[in-house]
Structures are given as structure tokens and as C-alpha cells.
Design brief:
This protein is an alpha+beta fold. The protein has 4 helices and 5 strands. The protein has helices at residues 27-36, 46-54, 98-109, 124-129, and strands at residues 17-20, 58-64, 67-76, 81-89, 114-117. It has a 5-stranded mixed β-sheet with strand order 1-2-3-4-5, with helices on both faces. A hairpin with a 2-residue loop joins strand 2 and strand 3 (67-76). Helix 1 (27-36) packs across helix 2. The longest helix has 12 residues, at 98-109. Bound molecules: coenzyme A (COA). Residues 37, 39, 87-89, 94-100, 117, 119-120, 122-123, 125-126, 129 line the site of coenzyme A (COA).
């Protein structure tokens, strides 16, 4: 794969490389993608961002040359539950199938588990479209 990024208008899914792990990632790159996507995360706190990634069970990234255009971060026990903590795609390449590709890669690596996530106002329709079912019995409490 060339390290030259293709212009978004010419980009197809086949041009993208999917990588597993933290190689090539930095807090700054993650924060830039989250700001641009946008995804509400602690984007002014590089240490916290990096801890989120170092503690993850699975990190997948989509690359256009040397540019990160998508990120998925998962916590999983490997047998029962997986939590898709973050999914973000660079706005220039949204609606090209990058998010769907990352989710399919996550599902493939977390086979046998139930993939759980929290949506946002802009992404609720997206997960329904991708075959996720809304559950009524989820509860959240912040540990303080
Ligand atoms: C939500 C997000 C990850 C989707 O990624 P994406 O790469 O743009 O989406 P995809 O191209 O994989 O979309 C796959 C399909 O879902 C559809 N879709 C995309 N966004 C959608 C939405 N908000 N509602 C309904 N359908 C949607 C696409 O049209 C596409 O349909 P097709 O397969 O028939 O062409 C991306 O828009 C994003 O990063 N948003 C900001 C951050 C965010 O909200 N993240 C999720 C928080 S939980």
C-alpha cells in the first residue's frame, strides 16, 4: 500500500488498509479524528485518550495511505460481551462504507459475543440500518 493518501473524491473501500493495534496511532491523531467526525470524547486530554486506547481489548483503524480515516475501539471478555466504545469516520469519507467495514471487522473478531454500544443523535438510524436491535433494559450510572 502506498503511503500517499488518495483524494476523498477518488477513494474506494479497496484503497483502504485495516490495521489492528496501536501502531501509527498517537493521542493527537485520535483527537483530530474525534473532533472532525465529530465524536464527543475527552479531546483536550491526551493522557486520558491514550489510556482509553491502551486499555482497549481491540483497536481497529482504517488508513488511506498514511492518513487515519476511521477508528473502532472495543472492550471485550471474548466469550460473552463486547462493547463498541467508539466508532468514528473522517467526514470527507463518511457514507463510503468505512464504518460498516470496521463494524464487520469487529463482529468477525468478536464472534460468539453480543456487541453492545451507545449511540448518539446522529448515529441511531445507522445502527438500526446495520442490523442492531435497540434494547430497553440498559442502565447507566457514573462511578464517582
Ligand atoms: C456514524 C458513522 C461512524 C458512520 O460511518 P460511515 O463510514 O459514514 O457509514 P457507512 O458508510 O459505513 O454507512 C453504511 C450504510 O449506513 C448508512 N448510514 C450512514 N450513516 C447513517 C445514519 N446516520 N443513519 C442511517 N443510515 C446511515 C449509509 O448510507 C450506508 O448505506 P449503504 O450501505 O446502503 O450505502 C460516521 O458517520 C461518524 O463517524 N459519525 C460521527 C461520529 C459518530 O456519531 N459515531 C458513532 C457514535 S456511537
Amino acid at each position: 500500500m502506498s503511503t500517499l493518501a488518495k483524494p476523498p473524491a477518488e477513494l474506494t473501500l479497496d484503497d483502504l488498509e485495516i490495521r489492528e493495534g496501536l501502531e501509527g496511532l498517537t493521542p493527537a491523531r485520535i483527537m483530530t479524528l474525534y473532533r472532525r467526525a465529530p465524536l464527543l470524547r475527552p479531546v483536550s486530554d491526551p493522557e486520558r485518550i491514550w489510556t482509553m486506547f491502551e486499555s482497549a481489548s481491540l483497536v481497529l483503524t482504517a488508513w488511506n495511505g498514511n492518513q487515519i480515516v476511521g477508528i473502532a475501539r472495543v472492550l471485550t471478555d471474548g466469550v460473552l460481551f463486547s462493547y463498541l466504545c467508539d466508532l468514528a469516520v473522517e467526514p470527507d469519507v463518511q457514507r463510503l462504507g468505512v464504518g460498516k467495514r470496521l463494524i464487520n471487522e469487529v463482529l468477525d473478531r468478536c464472534k460468539g459475543t453480543e456487541l453492545v454500544l451507545r449511540d448518539s443523535n446522529i448515529s441511531a438510524g445507522y445502527y438500526a440500518y446495520l442490523g442492531f436491535k435497540r434494547v430497553e433494559n440498559a442502565w447507566v450510572r457514573k462511578a464517582t
